[in-house]
Amino acid sequence: MYPDEIIQKLKKYEKVVLLTGAGISAESGISTFRGARGQWEKVDPMKLATPESFAKDPKFVWEWYEARRRQLALAEPNAGHEILAWMEEFFPQVTLVTQNVDRLHQKAGSRHPIELHGSIWMVRCVGGCGEWEDRHELVNLPPKCPHCGALLRPGVVWFGEGLPPEPWAEAEKAARNCDAFLIIGTSALVYPAAALPEGPMRLGKLVIEINPEETPLSGQVTLSIHAGAGEALKSLREKLIKNEVD
Ligand code: BV8
Ligand code: ZN
Q1: Where exactly are the structural domains of the chain?
Q2: How many angstroms separate the CA atoms of 179 and 76, rounded?
Q3: Confidence tier at 32 by pLDDT (50, 70, 90)
Q4: What is the pLDDT of residues 205-240, one digit of tens each?
Q5: Which CATH architecture has domain 1-29+77-117+163-246?
Q6: Fewer CB within 10 Å, N or C, the chain?
Q7: Distance from residue 192's CA to the centre of ligand 1 (Å)
Q8: How far is the C-alpha of 232 from the C-alpha of 227, rounded, in Å?
Q9: Which residue, by CA, sits nearest to atom 21 of ligand 1?
Q10: Looking at the predicted structure, is the pLDDT value of residue 40 above 70?
């Protein structure tokens, strides 16, 4: 799966960036957006995950989010999440950037995942009282702010909304300075997150993609591994540790 010379190089690197998408949570039973059981097939997320649809029908949008929250409440991190957390012990500096809103990376022990698209566990007052984590089952939808009575919205980034400036700047900085960039479980269709690997690829850094399917990045990366994250990351960890012993 991994040519030896790539392992030899990777082992010596200090700064590794990991970019994950919905595919890293697939093996935790969370349907991806565009996959076979993609949530986006049932509803059109391009329509639902937007400020316009929330303004038009906040209850319906919240029914979709609360259904996903309930599915996530039962989900556990999988081997892929765990091995990405382990990498923070193996490499001197790991920056995990995720497009996911499920916080399974935190549950697996990743110390500081950069959440480009926010989190489904965060709720935000549209009246400006701020945002906070609320993992309870939200029964009266759409939920109202306990402080001012205004609507609460999911603390995620919708289509047409800008990414949170600090996380985005942190992710860009890490991508600019990395020695290696791993892309795991993303269809690389959603921007600007999908543009993150462009810098490292242009600079000729080691860029590895792990995805059972082809993506627009597959032809441009150093190594494209067509396998699921669990299997591919288990094999990568074995190779990294094995050489450690030799
Ligand atoms: C913005 C949160 C401007 C909500 C999400 C060019 C430049 C800038 C913007 C655009 C642009 N072109 C188009 C745009 C607009 C838009 C966009 O990118 N549209 C695309 C679809 C064409 N972008 C935006 O609107 C962004 N905002 O740029 O605004 C702006 C700037 C300043 C000021 C104001 C405005 C905002 C984008 C964020 C949208 N929010 N999520 C929610 O979750 O409900 S995006 C959503 O898609 C999720 O976050 C998800 O993470 C993300 C990407 O999807 P993936 O993670 O890749 O998941 P997917 O299902 O697609 O793929 C899964 C992959 O896993 C597959 O490849 C599959 O093969 C693989 N897989 C399956 N099983 C496994 C596996 N891999 C490994 N192992 C397995 N077992
Ligand atoms: Zn409020």
Answers
A1: 1-29+77-117+163-246, 31-74+119-156
A2: 31
A3: confident
A4: 999 999 999 999 999 999 999 999 999 999 999 999
A5: 3-Layer(aba) Sandwich (3.40)
A6: C
A7: 8
A8: 6
A9: 190
A10: no
Residue 149 alpha carbon to ligand 1 centre in Å:
31
The class that CATH gives domain 31-74+119-156 is alpha beta
Answer yes or no: 117 catalytic. yes
CA of 151 to the centre of ligand 2 (A): 7
Grade residue 42 by pLDDT with cuts at 50, 70 and 90: low
Residue 110 is encoded by which pair of tokens?
A: 């990743």
On whether the pTM is more than 0.85, the answer is: yes
Q: Return the SS3 of 176.
A: helix
CB-CB contact of 206 with 6 (8 Å):
yes
Distances (CA, A) of 16 to 51, 166, 206: 34, 19, 10
Q: Kind of pairing, strands 152-156 and 206-210?
A: unpaired
**Residue 39 pLDDT greater than 60, yes or no:** no
The DSSP code sequence of 39-102 is HHHHS-HHHHSSHHHHHH-HHHHHHHHHHHHHHHHT----HHHHHHHHHHHHSSEEEEEE--SS
Ligand 2 (ion): residues with CB under 5 Å are 125, 127, 129, 145, 147-148, 150
